[in-house]
Amino acid sequence: MNWRILLVDDDPYMRALITAYLTDYATTVVEFEAAEPALAELLANPYDLLITDLNMPGARCGRWLVNQAREHLADLPIIVITGDPLERRELRAADAIILKPFHPDELLGEIWDLLPERGTGKHRVRS
Fold first, then answer.
1. Which helix or strand (DSSP H or E) is residue 20 part of?
2. Which residues pair with 97 in a beta bridge?
3. Under a CB-based contact definition with an 8 Å cutoff, are residues 15 and 7 in contact?
4. 104/85 Cα distance (integer angstroms)
5. What does the pLDDT look like over 36-92, one tens digit per residue?
6. C-beta separation of 80 from 96 below 8 A
7. Domain boundaries, the chain
8. Domain 4-114 falls in which CATH fold?
9. pTM for the model
10. What does the pLDDT read at residue 117?
C-alpha cells in the first residue's frame, strides 16, 4: 500500500496507537500534536490522507485544520476522529468521521474506502 498519512492528535497515546496499527500495513505515518505545524507540513509535502482529532487545545483546532486542508488541497481525503457525537452531523468537510472510542479496524476500513491502491502522495497544493 505504501500510503503517506499525516496524523494530528494532541493525545500522544492515541497517536502512538494509530501509528503502530497503521505501520503494520506498510504505511508511513507522520505525527503532529497541533494543527498549525501540521498544516505547514501538509502544504510542504505530499500526503495521501489526513487523519485529525477534532477537539485539540489552542486557537487552531481540528476543525480549523480540516477547513484549511479543504481550501488548499480540495481532493485530499480527510478522516476526523472525535469524541463528540454532535460533531458527526455538523462537520461536512471531512470524508469520514469516526466517533471515539473506536476499534482500529474501523479506521482501517475508512482508509481502505478512501485510498484503494493509491499510495502515491499525489495530493498537491492548489495554486
1. helix 12-23
2. 80
3. yes
4. 18
5. 999 999 999 999 999 999 988 887 889 999 999 999 999 999 999 998 877 666 677
6. yes
7. 4-114
8. Rossmann fold (3.40.50)
9. 0.88
10. 63
